[in-house]
Each structure stands twice: as C-alpha cells, then as structure tokens.
Design brief:
Layout lengths: L4 E6 L4 H11 L9 E6 L5 H14 L4 E7 L2 H4 L5 E4 L11 H22 L5 E4 L4 H10 L9 E3 L2 H15 L6 E2 L2 E3 L7 E3 L4 E2 L2 E2 L6 H13 L1 H9 L5 H16 L7 E6 L11 E9 L2 E4 L7 H23 L4
Parallel strand pairs: 1-2, 1-4, 2-3, 4-5, 5-6
Antiparallel strand pairs: 6-12, 7-10, 8-9, 10-11, 12-13, 13-14
Helix pairs in contact: 1-9, 4-5, 5-10, 6-7
The structure holds 1,4-dihydronicotinamide adenine dinucleotide.
Amino acid sequence: MSTPLKVAVTGAAGQIGYSLLFRIASGALGGDREVELRLLEVTPALKALEGVVMELDDCAFPHLAGVEIGDDPKEVFDGVELALLVGARPRSAGMERKDLLEANGAIFTAQGRALNDAAADNVRIQVTGNPANTNALITAANAPDIPRDRFSALTRLDHNRAIAQLSRKTGVPAHDITRMTIWGNHSATQYPDLFHTLVDGRPATELVDREWIESDFIPTVAKRGTAIIEARGLSSAASAASATIDAARSWLFGTPADDWQSMAVVSDGSYGVPEGLVSSFPVTTGGGSWSIVQDLEIDDFSRSRIDASVAELQEEADAVRSLGLV
Ligand code: NAI
C-alpha cells in the first residue's frame, strides 16, 4: 500500500476550492492512490473552511486519507508533494496594477519561502491564482532550493477552452482534438495556436479558415473568462478547478502519446522566449517532468502573437523586479 499523496491547496475556502477539493478527494487527481489534503487560508476564512471540511467528511470519500487546515504556510506545506496555489488577491475597484502585483507579491514571496523550507524534496508547484505566470515567477524566485522545473502556472483552462471552441466549430468530440497550444501569458494577450492541432488526425487548418481563426477563435478563447463573468456574475470556478486537476494529473502521470498540453513553465529560451520568464508552451509531461515540444514551425502571424504576449510577461517581470520581489 503506497503512502497518501500529500496535496496542498491554497485559497481553499474560495470558489475554485469549493469545486477542486471535492474532485481531488473523489480520486480525479490521484486515481486509486489515497490523498491527504493540506488546506491553507487566511485567518478570517478558516471558519468557512471548517464548514467545507465538514462537507468533505460527509462525502465519506474512500480515498481521502485526511484533511488538515491552517493559516501558516510553513505548517500546511510540511511534506507536501504537490502544491496547488489557488488563493490570490483579486483586483479591487480602483486598484492599480502595481498595487495588485505588490499584494500578490507578498503572498507568493511568503509561500515560496515556506515551500522552500517545508515541502517534500519531490514537490511540484502549480499556480492558478492570478496573475498566475508572474505569481509563479515570484514563488520560484523565493524558493532557491527547489529546482526551477518544479514550478508552473495554469494555462490548461485556456487550452481546454480552445479545444472546446474547435470541437464546437468542427462537430468533432473534444477527445479527438490533440496538439492544441496556448503560448505566453494567462491573460487576454495569450495566443491560442491551432496551426499544429489535429482534429481526428487531420490538420485543423484543413477544417477551419483563417477568418474564423482570427476573428472568432482567438478572441473567443482569450476573452472567455470575461464572458463567463458577464453571464454568471462570478469568475469561472468549476472549469478552473477541472483544468487545475487536468494539468496536475498530466504533469504527474503523463500526457498521452502523440499529444501535449499547454503549461506555463520557466523558459529555457525555446522559441525566442527570454530565459527565466514563466511562459506557456506546448509541453509533454510525465512522472513529474516536462519538456517543451521543439521544432514547431512558427509563421509570421504566430510569431507576432507570441511576441506580444511575451512582451507583456516581460513587463510584469520587470515590474516585480523593480518592487524587489524577484
Ligand atoms: P476566491 O476569491 O473565491 O477565493 C480565493 C481564496 O483565496 C479566498 O478564500 C481567500 O481568502 C484566499 N486567499 C487569499 N490570500 C490568501 C493567502 N495568502 N493564503 C491562502 N489563501 C488566500 O477566488 P477564486 O474564484 O477561487 O479564484 C482564485 C484565483 O484563481 C484568482 O486569482 C483567480 O483570478 C484565479 N483564476 C485563475 C484561472 C487560471 O486559468 N489560471 C482561472 C480562474 C481563476
């Protein structure tokens, strides 16, 4: 019998947490392996989190080995093998970008240090909380003993959204669509690239035209989060939780042969993305490792879109550097 997989979730009493915890506890992440949840919240939210834990208890999940909650990152991260950093400071009315980066900088600086001191040697860290790429950059910079390739930021939701749009357009089920790519930042500048995508084994570009790609597909995927807020009055939560699990599961257990996932990782300079930026790439994953898919042909159209998103990442990185956060 293997030991339980120790998974930390931050922001556990939030919207995404309310969907994420129950899916993890039901086996969506670890399969038959037991899971121990370590849940971090700010002190005022601990009471609400206690209620969530009561509900987890009441599900009597067979693979849930235990749940611990707390407001001290070092205690909560003790021995964790997977840290899903979901909690973040949202932008409030009138808040400047600099203030947002600073507020999140404080959270992810502290969590990076705590992970550095307390997490298991084999820890993998995946940031969902926005601005996710830059929060991952800050976390990594503050955890010098953890190798750079253990940090990622979530662009799997954008990846899944892109597959969903293409599936709808072509009438082919989502599971027959492979090799989708999101490049760059998890923001409106992201570039969903279907020029290497296969739809039931056929190039997507044989089934959709350039006009649809430029005027419909790219803006719909990039602005999907806003469309959901307008419709629901709240930001996407269940789909974000689902993508958080998809990405972590692929990272730990592997992408299928002949497919890849989009994942924001610390750039090694591939595709001209400056080394050190946390940018989304097509990656193959498995056994807790990833590698960027190499040698994809990038035409001028794709190049300019990738460059625009990477320029935004560079600006964010420069801003947090000037604040002394990295
Ligand atoms: P929410 O506001 O419902 O929950 C966030 C939770 O984080 C709150 O309970 C809050 O108390 C907690 N929190 C704040 N600071 C914390 C800290 N220092 N330590 C631990 N917990 C802390 O937000 P929701 O909807 O659950 O979203 C969470 C984050 O995920 C947001 O930043 C959101 O923008 C981001 N997001 C990212 C997506 C992606 O694809 N990367 C998609 C959707 C949301």
